[in-house]
Amino acid sequence: xxxxxxxxxxxxxxxxxxxxxxxxxxxxxxxxxxxxxxxxxxxxxxxxxxxxxxxxxxxxxxxxxxxxxxxxxxxxxxxxxxxxxxxxxxxxxxxxxxxxxxxxxxxxxxxxxxxxxxxxxxxxxxxxxxxxxxxxxxxxxxxxxxxxxxxxxxxxxxxxxxxxxxxxxxxxxxxxxxxxxxxxxxxxxxxxxxxxxxxxxxxxxxxxxxxxxxxxxxxxxxxxxxxxxxxxxxxxxxxxxxxxxxxxxxxxxxxxxxxxxxxxxxxxxxxxxxxxxxxxxxxxxxxxxxxxxxxxxxxxxxxxxxxxxxxxxxxxxxxxxxxxxxxxxxxxxxxxxxxxxxxxxxxxxxxxxxxxxxxxxxxxxxxxxxxxxxxxxxxxxxxxxxxxxxxxxxxxxxxxxxxxxxxxxxxxxxxxxxxxxxxxxxxxxxxxxxxxxxxxxxxxxxxxxxxxxxxxxxxxxxxxxxxxxxxxxxxxxxxxxxxxxxxxxxxxxxxxxxxxxxxxxxxxxxxxxxxxxxxxxxxxxxxxxxxxxxxxxxxxx
Amino acid sequence: xxxxxxxxxxxxxxxxxxxxxxxxxxxxxxxxxxxxxxxxxxxxxxxxxxxxxxxxxxxxxxxxxxxxxxxxxxxxxxxxxxxxxxxxxxxxxxxxxxxxxxxxxxxxxxxxxxxxxxxxxxxxxxxxxxxxxxxxxxxxxxxxxxxxxxxxxxxxxxxxxxxxxxxxxxxxxxxxxxxxxxxxxxxxxxxxxxxxxxxxxxxxxxxxxxxxxxxxxxxxxxxxxxxxxxxxxxxxxxxxxxxxxxxxxxxxxxxxxxxxxxxxxxxxxxxxxxxxxxxxxxxxxxxxxxxxxxxxxxxxxxxxxx
Lengths: 541, 306
Hints:
The complex is a heterodimer of chains A (541) and B (306). Chain A is an alpha/beta fold and 541 residues long. Chain A has a domain at 2-225: MetI-like (MetI-like fold). Chain A is 54% helix and 12% strand. Chain A is built from 20 helices and 10 strands. In chain A, the strands form 2 sheets. A 6-stranded mixed sheet of chain A has the order 6-7-8-3-9-10, with helices on both faces. A 4-stranded antiparallel sheet of chain A has the order 2-1-4-5, with helices on one face. With 306 residues, chain B is of the alpha/beta class. Chain B has 2 domains: 47-148 and 253-303, 3-Layer(aba) Sandwich (D-Maltodextrin-Binding Protein, domain 2); 150-252, Periplasmic binding protein-like II (D-Maltodextrin-Binding Protein, domain 2, 3-Layer(aba) Sandwich), CATH 3.40.190. Chain B contains 12 helices and 12 strands. In chain B, the strands form 3 sheets. In chain B, strands 6, 7, 8, 9, 10, 11 and 12 form a 7-stranded mixed sheet that branches. Classes of the chains: A alpha/beta (541), B alpha/beta (306). At the A-B interface, α1, α4 and α8 of A face α2, β2, α6 and α9 of B.
């Protein structure tokens, strides 16, 4: 026992820790850099890069570290690269850690909800911006436990550097054992030192997890230490009451300041309105749009024009191509033939007809202004309601923090959620999330708003609050909208025009009330009769 | 208590307490230290060295790297009293040669099997680490031989398997050896002999240092470990109630200093310096200092193959 204590406190062994830590640190830092490069190559659009990264991974993950160390130490000098022992060990460990770290990074990146990436793209975020603001912050949080594991494993693996004369703890222990013959006392002591080091790593891991935990109040989170954090400029409002005075205390309620429409009056108005609309400029022009998966056509030659201020309801059975059409309009998806013009521009193509790079496409989306609301809301999970709206304004449109926050608060108030400004999406109900998503989509003042079944994922009791928000947008903002929906009554109320899709083609279109009450196409009629319960009744004569 | 006052620090006290526990005579230890200090001073560079430094000026004032496998107390191991230092016969001899030619040495500790690779990759300039000069190894490095080889057979106390050398007495037993040791092929050569004699084959366990080989016997995994007789003696001294030396055997090799094949001038310089060191009687003094058999002494030869 006294021998054990003697070796535990022997400076010779304690100093060995520094070599162990130096090799580990070099291995992890180098592995992280190399791993980032490898992961980027594997996720790249260029197959050559991906194949090279695959090859590297196969070789360096598939050969023992001890061989790699000997190689770095004894073979590299043959080509004139003579590294110190610690350098060679660090290089070998880095080369060996890189594929593991790359896989961790890749898993972290791929683990971020695909919907959030689509939402970011729709908001005009470039791939780099998406990575920095949306993917990395969320991926890093999920990767910390794996990175903790990797650190512990690198620390233990550094002991192999003793074969190439790095005076790490292990080498010092074996040398000491050889000269003193106190085999067990020495190895128990060095084992305990390793244990202390790995315990330290675990403690750091837990602390980092705690610091980055989004569910902890911000002042404890120390998230402000992160590079992307900016201190809020405006003090938080002291009280944030729900806006709706009629339903104080119920955050489900949306202030309904719009007068309830009298169907008859509004229909007369709407006849006049549609007459005006036909004279407006076309905002969206789709012609001959064709898209097929394998040989199955999803869009079979769609022709559609949407004019400024017009609200178009896209109806049709599931799989009729509604979502695909919407995604083509802002070029979240490509197509095989036909053209899509938004605001007179061919989205996604250069002047000479060649496709734009993802980065240029993002900039074009931001410039043309096509807002999109998704069925699954797709809010950025790591950002508060306020940041979901204000963030993209700052990052994509270069709005100042103060202005972006003001705009975000204004919009949250409009959708009745100013009291939830600091809530994370996961703490909001589905209806609240969708209201935030709508606010986010209209924040940059898009020229057209696309809504892809905005209420389909909601519980029935939450549908009305979202529809109410959309209804008010049509009345108050006169926003151009294309809504795909199954809510026939709602379509009748808000849409100027209904477009009925079936099997990828428009089989019927016309003024909303007309199509919904007296469809000419038998397919439309059958669909509407199935949805009978929700069908608007024919206006009394 | 006196000791604590004399040494004045706790680490020395623990050291000496440990020594006392291992029945070492403290007084002898102190005496040894004094002798070491004196003898260290006494060994000034021999007279012929000045001429050598003039003839081979390339290494004067340089610091060279000596790759060692510091697991053989007596030849090269860390100093238990000051683990930042390496001590032993080979260490002293190397420093004497260095002093003669005007260079100093730093040490790089590697596994035994990696000694020559470290040299040929340029990570070390010289290897003085109780390595036997064989034809096979001389393909990787040139050797300047300086010592005869006597091996001892280490066995568990009482020699339960009655092993008396690398011969048929080893049939059916388990031998521990260091990876890369010359004894490995000698034991392997027994396999067909044992078979022919109708006896079970010997098995081989390869480790990467002496300590592990000795532990293999202590743990009952191996029956014997054949290595340099001094190493075997040291192991018996450390574990007198568990180990014993069965016998000394002669091995037809010499111990050599390894130098890179592409530096014949360095090889010649080292050999010339070794001759000076031997002429001055330092070689024999060092054998005595490290309690090695004076019969080990050998005048240098060069072993170099294409």
